[in-house]
Write the structure tokens for this entry.
Amino acid sequence: MKDAMTTSQPVPPARPADGVPTVSVEGLALCAGKRTIFRDVSFDVPTGSLAVLAGPSGRGKTALALALAGRLTPTAGRATVLGLALPRHAGSVRRRVGFTGNESVTPLDGTLTVKHHVAEALQLAGPWWRPSASRKRVDRTITAANDLLGGLEDVFGDGEGGAPLVQARLHRSELVRDAAPAARFALGLVLALASDPDILVVDDVDRLRTAPERRAAWAALLTLGHTRDDARPLTVVATCRDRQELADVLAPGHRLEALPLRSAAVHTLEAPPTPAPEIR
């Protein structure tokens, strides 16, 4: 079930002496009526690494990602996230996990301008008793997304990922729906990090339609850090159907090797069992 792809420069655990993974699941399952969404899922996610939940549509990747984020309750098995048992401590887990990529859970409002959407998201992410969406912070958030895109453009140059990134920039006054797909992806990332979570969950990397954009997305997830400068490593969980572009950017000789990368492991979800026909 597990296919590991380890980079040459993994991020060390936050507390090496602990030896406790950030995410640990054993025999996890989710059923809805007679339908099995996923079952018998077991893996550990080391602190600071990238865990990829892969498999064709219908394997329960999004449901598993939501469960790990404390947003969906599994029906069987054991799961601990950041040392907190689920579902008992789901509320605490939700506060420490950023989530993006699923329009049903954390939608980007295409009818708002970039600056208004960022201001609204920052205000919601902050404490109710303190204004969290100053003009300075809004500008800093937009700049962080553009800096991420610019850094990836430098890595890819004019080749495999450079072309779609050259025009992928966020502008304060443009509508979110008019931004390039890669720019909206970067915006989702920085907004999910606004609350300074310990884990970032990114659903459906495949929603980026072109292979160069997906390579850039994986590069972002392999290099992304906290928005606040500190020593805490960021653990990332992402879902996808096809991991070919991840393999491409991790291939020996790729220019991404020059950057500090987190280790990555792919966990392939097995097909749920076909229910036996009822005999009447």
User: Anything to note?
Assistant: The helical segments are 61-68, 90-96, 114-125, 135-156, 162-166, 181-192, 211-223, 244-250. The chain is about 30% helix and 20% strand.
